[in-house]
Design brief:
CATH superfamily of the largest domain: 4-hydroxy-3-methylbut-2-enyl diphosphate reductase, catalytic domain
Order of helices and strands: EHEHEEHEHEHEHEHHEHEHEHE
Shape: flat
CATH topology of the largest domain: Cobalt-precorrin-4 Transmethylase, domain 1
Largest sheet: 5 strands, parallel
Helix content: 25-40%
Number of domains: 3
Distance between the termini: 55 Å
Number of strands: 12
């Protein structure tokens, strides 16, 4: 007789509206223009998604200079790109489709408006993440100062800022950690201006809320997602902080830890915003082979957000 196991399934989980839109942009571009179409960087941070799009006719490149055939279109990833990238595409007469998530584009517009109004800008985000590179690349070099931690706030000198100050954030950060950093910024710079509406996106916030709600009940927590997916890695951190110290990222190369599953009575499962639901179902099916499983889905929000496709694909 198999030992009983309770699984708490976090909801919402998996694909957000920006990821769905980006994948659809690649598929519709292949349908419209034929294959191959080029994609600059991983369209979303998930190996399985990228591999499936390769099979359909997408060629992934690091830079525009890697494009071998200038008659083919190139798609920019959901994370957004610096201004220099579309400029280079125009210079080379490449047609392009921009799959930047509209919520990332909102942060880009914010930064431009703040810059126009004469603000000095602090960006809270992770160095070298494509979204951060894209946001910092909206303005002339040196216009945006990046901070990652509370200790980075300590290092800022009040006298270094001659003009009014504003902050923006990456869209996929930990909600709680970012709130702490913002608190430090506001104590140090009481007049600092924040965004009218939070920059951290609805999907990141909802997925973290769902994980927080169940983590303390779990002996083990699995987040399905890629190692380079910021929002997936944050979910692991959130689960640990919320009370499940044994929280693990289930990425494409990770073996399922059956020995740890065997020792557990309760397991939590969620997935990052770029992880397909079939990966969650595959994990569940593998767990069911060795245990008598009962599943309870814990829903914290209903997501009805849908983003329109770029007009050239409608």
């Amino acid at each position: 007789m198999k030992k009983e196991l309770k699984i708490y399934l976090a909801s919402p989980r998996g694909f957000c509206a920006g990821v769905k839109r980006a994948i659809e942009i690649v598929e519709k571009s292949i349908n419209k223009y034929g294959s191959p179409v080029y994609v600059r960087h991983e369209i979303v941070h998930n190996k399985q998604v990228v591999d499936e799009l390769k099979k359909k006719g997408a060629i992934f490149v690091d830079e525009i200079s890697d494009v071998k055939d200038n008659s083919r279109p190139i798609i920019f990833s959901a994370h957004g790109v610096p201004k220099s990238v579309p400029e280079e595409a125009k210079f080379k007469n490449l047609s392009y489709v921009d799959a930047t998530c509209p919520l990332v584009s909102k942060v880009h517009r914010e930064s431009e408006q703040l810059h126009k109004k004469g603000y000095e800008i602090i960006l809270i985000g992770h160095k070298n993440h494509p979204e951060v590179v894209g946001t910092m690349g909206q303005l002339p070099k040196g216009s945006i100062r990046l901070i990652e931690t509370k200790s980075d706030v300590e290092k800022l000198k009040v006298e270094d800022f001659k003009r009014p100050l504003a902050y923006i954030t990456q869209t996929t950060l930990s909600v709680d950690d970012t709130a702490e950093i913002i608190g430090h910024l506001k104590r140090k710079f009481p007049a600092i201006k924040g965004p009218i509406k939070e920059d951290i996106c609805y999907a990141t916030t909802n997925r973290q809320s769902a994980v927080k709600k169940i983590a303390a009940k779990c002996d083990l927590f699995f987040i399905v997602g890629s190692r380079n997916s910021s929002n997936s890695v944050r979910l692991v951190e959130v689960a640990k902080k919320a009370g499940c110290t044994n929280s693990q990222l289930m990425h494409s190369e990770k073996e399922i830890p059956y020995d740890e599953i065997e020792k557990s009575n309760t397991i939590g499962i969620s997935s990052g915003a770029s992880a397909p639901e079939k990966l969650v179902q595959a994990l569940l099916n593998n767990i069911k082979k060795g245990r008598e499983v009962s599943i309870e889905e814990i829903v914290v929000a209903e997501e009805k957000v849908v983003f329109k496709l770029p007009k050239e694909l409608n």
